[in-house]
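Hi U.,

Before I forget, here's the chain from the pilot set. I'm dumping it here mostly so it's searchable later in email.
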Amino acid sequence: MRASLNLNPSKLRFTLATDLDGTFLGGTEEERKKLYSFLEENKDQIGLVFVTGRDIPFVRNLIDTKEVPKPDLIIGDVGTTVVNTNDYESLKEIQGWIDSLWSGEEKARELMQAHPHLKEQKIYGGKRVSYFYSEEDKARAAAADAIAAGYDAIFSANLYFDILPKGVKKGPTLLKLIELLGLNAETVLTAGDTLNDLSLFETGLKSVAVGNSEDLLKEELNRLKNVYLAKGHGAAGIEESIRHFNLF
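Structure:
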Protein backbone atom coordinates (compact mmCIF):
# COMPACT_ATOMS: atom_id res chain seq x y z
CA MET A 1 0.00 0.00 0.00
CA ARG A 2 1.04 3.63 -0.41
CA ALA A 3 3.39 5.37 1.98
CA SER A 4 2.19 7.34 4.96
CA LEU A 5 2.72 11.06 5.40
CA ASN A 6 6.08 11.93 3.92
CA LEU A 7 4.84 14.35 1.30
CA ASN A 8 7.41 16.21 -0.73
CA PRO A 9 5.39 18.98 -2.44
CA SER A 10 8.12 19.57 -5.01
CA LYS A 11 7.73 16.02 -6.32
CA LEU A 12 3.93 15.91 -6.46
CA ARG A 13 2.27 16.25 -9.83
CA PHE A 14 -1.08 16.64 -8.08
CA THR A 15 -2.94 15.89 -4.85
CA LEU A 16 -6.36 14.24 -4.76
CA ALA A 17 -8.56 15.35 -1.85
CA THR A 18 -11.60 13.13 -2.08
CA ASP A 19 -14.80 12.28 -0.29
CA LEU A 20 -15.33 8.56 0.33
CA ASP A 21 -18.94 7.35 0.21
CA GLY A 22 -20.35 7.69 -3.29
CA THR A 23 -17.12 9.23 -4.57
CA PHE A 24 -13.83 7.37 -3.97
CA LEU A 25 -15.82 4.31 -2.91
CA GLY A 26 -18.36 4.74 -5.73
CA GLY A 27 -18.49 3.18 -9.17
CA THR A 28 -18.03 -0.43 -10.18
CA GLU A 29 -15.41 -2.73 -8.72
CA GLU A 30 -13.49 -2.56 -12.00
CA GLU A 31 -13.57 1.27 -12.00
CA ARG A 32 -12.35 1.44 -8.42
CA LYS A 33 -9.57 -1.03 -9.11
CA LYS A 34 -8.41 1.01 -12.11
CA LEU A 35 -8.24 4.26 -10.11
CA TYR A 36 -6.68 2.68 -7.03
CA SER A 37 -4.01 0.92 -9.12
CA PHE A 38 -3.15 4.19 -10.85
CA LEU A 39 -2.72 5.94 -7.50
CA GLU A 40 -0.59 3.11 -6.11
CA GLU A 41 1.65 2.96 -9.16
CA ASN A 42 2.31 6.69 -8.93
CA LYS A 43 2.19 7.19 -5.16
CA ASP A 44 5.45 9.15 -5.10
CA GLN A 45 3.96 11.73 -7.47
CA ILE A 46 0.35 11.90 -6.25
CA GLY A 47 -0.77 13.05 -2.81
CA LEU A 48 -3.92 11.46 -1.40
CA VAL A 49 -6.18 12.97 1.26
CA PHE A 50 -9.50 11.48 2.35
CA VAL A 51 -12.03 14.21 3.18
CA THR A 52 -15.06 12.54 4.69
CA GLY A 53 -17.97 12.78 7.07
CA ARG A 54 -16.91 9.43 8.52
CA ASP A 55 -15.05 9.22 11.82
CA ILE A 56 -11.39 8.23 12.02
CA PRO A 57 -11.96 4.67 13.39
CA PHE A 58 -14.16 3.88 10.38
CA VAL A 59 -11.58 5.18 7.91
CA ARG A 60 -8.71 3.47 9.70
CA ASN A 61 -10.53 0.14 9.51
CA LEU A 62 -11.13 0.71 5.79
CA ILE A 63 -7.41 1.29 5.31
CA ASP A 64 -6.34 -1.63 7.52
CA THR A 65 -8.49 -4.06 5.53
CA LYS A 66 -6.64 -2.85 2.40
CA GLU A 67 -9.89 -2.00 0.62
CA VAL A 68 -8.44 1.34 -0.48
CA PRO A 69 -4.99 2.89 -1.04
CA LYS A 70 -3.53 4.33 2.12
CA PRO A 71 -3.91 8.13 2.13
CA ASP A 72 -1.27 10.53 3.37
CA LEU A 73 -3.80 12.31 5.59
CA ILE A 74 -7.41 12.11 6.66
CA ILE A 75 -9.80 15.00 7.16
CA GLY A 76 -12.64 13.30 9.01
CA ASP A 77 -15.84 14.15 10.84
CA VAL A 78 -16.98 16.63 8.15
CA GLY A 79 -13.80 18.67 8.45
CA THR A 80 -13.49 18.74 12.25
CA THR A 81 -10.69 16.17 12.64
CA VAL A 82 -7.33 16.04 10.85
CA VAL A 83 -4.83 13.19 11.30
CA ASN A 84 -1.77 11.82 9.56
CA THR A 85 -1.57 8.13 8.74
CA ASN A 86 1.85 7.50 10.30
CA ASP A 87 0.35 7.19 13.77
CA TYR A 88 -3.18 8.61 13.37
CA GLU A 89 -2.27 11.54 15.59
CA SER A 90 -3.96 14.88 14.96
CA LEU A 91 -2.24 17.77 13.23
CA LYS A 92 -2.12 20.11 16.20
CA GLU A 93 -1.71 23.28 14.15
CA ILE A 94 -5.07 22.70 12.46
CA GLN A 95 -6.84 20.89 15.29
CA GLY A 96 -6.17 23.81 17.61
CA TRP A 97 -7.86 26.16 15.14
CA ILE A 98 -10.90 23.85 14.93
CA ASP A 99 -11.18 23.41 18.70
CA SER A 100 -10.99 27.16 19.31
CA LEU A 101 -14.10 27.72 17.19
CA TRP A 102 -16.27 25.02 18.80
CA SER A 103 -19.02 26.32 21.09
CA GLY A 104 -19.70 22.91 22.60
CA GLU A 105 -21.93 19.87 22.24
CA GLU A 106 -24.23 20.67 25.16
CA LYS A 107 -25.26 24.04 23.76
CA ALA A 108 -25.81 22.55 20.30
CA ARG A 109 -27.99 19.72 21.60
CA GLU A 110 -30.01 22.13 23.69
CA LEU A 111 -30.56 24.29 20.63
CA MET A 112 -31.79 21.36 18.56
CA GLN A 113 -34.42 20.40 21.13
CA ALA A 114 -36.62 22.90 19.29
CA HIS A 115 -36.37 20.63 16.23
CA PRO A 116 -37.70 17.24 17.36
CA HIS A 117 -37.82 15.89 13.81
CA LEU A 118 -34.01 15.52 13.99
CA LYS A 119 -32.73 12.16 15.26
CA GLU A 120 -29.24 12.26 16.76
CA GLN A 121 -26.56 10.03 15.28
CA LYS A 122 -24.05 8.11 17.35
CA ILE A 123 -20.62 9.45 16.37
CA TYR A 124 -17.21 8.74 17.84
CA GLY A 125 -15.12 11.83 17.27
CA GLY A 126 -14.79 15.35 15.98
CA LYS A 127 -16.12 18.68 17.14
CA ARG A 128 -19.66 18.17 15.86
CA VAL A 129 -23.15 17.02 16.72
CA SER A 130 -24.83 14.96 14.03
CA TYR A 131 -28.42 14.05 13.24
CA PHE A 132 -30.60 12.34 10.69
CA TYR A 133 -33.31 14.36 8.95
CA SER A 134 -36.12 13.53 6.54
CA GLU A 135 -37.67 16.91 5.67
CA GLU A 136 -35.50 19.45 3.88
CA ASP A 137 -37.51 22.53 4.89
CA LYS A 138 -37.27 21.62 8.57
CA ALA A 139 -33.56 20.88 8.23
CA ARG A 140 -33.03 24.33 6.70
CA ALA A 141 -34.85 25.90 9.66
CA ALA A 142 -32.66 23.98 12.12
CA ALA A 143 -29.55 25.04 10.20
CA ALA A 144 -30.62 28.69 10.38
CA ASP A 145 -31.00 28.44 14.17
CA ALA A 146 -27.59 26.82 14.52
CA ILE A 147 -25.89 29.49 12.40
CA ALA A 148 -27.61 32.27 14.35
CA ALA A 149 -26.25 30.75 17.57
CA GLY A 150 -22.64 30.82 16.34
CA TYR A 151 -22.29 27.38 14.74
CA ASP A 152 -22.12 26.21 11.16
CA ALA A 153 -24.54 23.60 9.87
CA ILE A 154 -24.78 21.45 6.76
CA PHE A 155 -27.15 18.78 5.50
CA SER A 156 -26.65 16.29 2.71
CA ALA A 157 -27.79 13.13 0.95
CA ASN A 158 -31.36 13.85 2.06
CA LEU A 159 -30.39 12.22 5.34
CA TYR A 160 -27.46 13.75 7.28
CA PHE A 161 -27.44 16.98 9.32
CA ASP A 162 -24.30 18.22 11.10
CA ILE A 163 -23.66 21.11 13.48
CA LEU A 164 -20.04 22.25 13.23
CA PRO A 165 -17.73 24.94 14.61
CA LYS A 166 -18.26 28.32 12.98
CA GLY A 167 -16.27 28.53 9.76
CA VAL A 168 -15.22 24.87 9.84
CA LYS A 169 -16.25 22.54 7.03
CA LYS A 170 -14.41 20.23 4.68
CA GLY A 171 -13.27 23.05 2.39
CA PRO A 172 -11.83 25.50 4.95
CA THR A 173 -10.02 22.64 6.73
CA LEU A 174 -8.51 21.48 3.44
CA LEU A 175 -7.26 25.01 2.72
CA LYS A 176 -5.60 25.09 6.15
CA LEU A 177 -3.93 21.77 5.34
CA ILE A 178 -2.70 22.99 1.95
CA GLU A 179 -1.16 26.03 3.61
CA LEU A 180 0.42 24.01 6.42
CA LEU A 181 2.02 21.48 4.06
CA GLY A 182 3.04 24.02 1.43
CA LEU A 183 1.13 22.25 -1.32
CA ASN A 184 0.61 23.92 -4.68
CA ALA A 185 -3.10 24.79 -4.67
CA GLU A 186 -3.10 24.82 -8.48
CA THR A 187 -2.45 21.08 -8.47
CA VAL A 188 -5.02 20.03 -5.85
CA LEU A 189 -8.15 18.25 -7.11
CA THR A 190 -11.19 17.91 -4.84
CA ALA A 191 -13.92 15.33 -5.46
CA GLY A 192 -17.37 14.81 -3.98
CA ASP A 193 -21.00 13.89 -4.53
CA THR A 194 -23.23 15.46 -1.83
CA LEU A 195 -23.97 18.83 -0.26
CA ASN A 196 -21.47 18.29 2.54
CA ASP A 197 -18.82 18.44 -0.20
CA LEU A 198 -20.00 21.85 -1.41
CA SER A 199 -17.44 23.70 0.72
CA LEU A 200 -14.69 21.74 -1.07
CA PHE A 201 -15.92 23.13 -4.36
CA GLU A 202 -16.27 26.62 -2.93
CA THR A 203 -12.51 26.73 -2.26
CA GLY A 204 -11.92 27.61 -5.91
CA LEU A 205 -9.66 24.58 -6.29
CA LYS A 206 -9.98 22.30 -9.28
CA SER A 207 -12.95 20.10 -8.43
CA VAL A 208 -15.10 17.29 -9.74
CA ALA A 209 -18.68 16.43 -8.88
CA VAL A 210 -18.96 12.79 -9.87
CA GLY A 211 -21.80 11.67 -12.11
CA ASN A 212 -23.89 10.22 -9.29
CA SER A 213 -23.90 13.51 -7.30
CA GLU A 214 -27.12 14.41 -5.51
CA ASP A 215 -29.47 16.88 -7.18
CA LEU A 216 -29.19 19.44 -4.37
CA LEU A 217 -25.45 19.65 -4.99
CA LYS A 218 -25.87 19.92 -8.76
CA GLU A 219 -28.19 22.88 -8.23
CA GLU A 220 -25.28 24.76 -6.67
CA LEU A 221 -22.80 24.06 -9.46
CA ASN A 222 -23.94 26.68 -11.98
CA ARG A 223 -22.33 29.43 -9.90
CA LEU A 224 -19.02 27.58 -9.54
CA LYS A 225 -16.78 27.73 -12.59
CA ASN A 226 -14.02 25.58 -11.09
CA VAL A 227 -16.16 22.42 -10.87
CA TYR A 228 -16.22 19.75 -13.56
CA LEU A 229 -19.39 17.64 -13.66
CA ALA A 230 -18.24 14.17 -14.63
CA LYS A 231 -20.31 11.62 -16.49
CA GLY A 232 -18.68 8.70 -14.72
CA HIS A 233 -19.88 7.65 -11.30
CA GLY A 234 -17.62 7.48 -8.27
CA ALA A 235 -14.07 6.39 -9.05
CA ALA A 236 -14.71 6.59 -12.79
CA GLY A 237 -15.70 10.25 -12.40
CA ILE A 238 -12.48 11.00 -10.54
CA GLU A 239 -10.38 9.32 -13.20
CA GLU A 240 -12.30 11.24 -15.88
CA SER A 241 -11.59 14.54 -14.13
CA ILE A 242 -7.84 13.83 -13.89
CA ARG A 243 -7.84 13.64 -17.69
CA HIS A 244 -10.12 16.69 -17.99
CA PHE A 245 -7.80 18.88 -15.91
CA ASN A 246 -4.71 17.34 -17.52
CA LEU A 247 -3.19 16.69 -14.10
CA PHE A 248 -1.06 13.70 -15.02
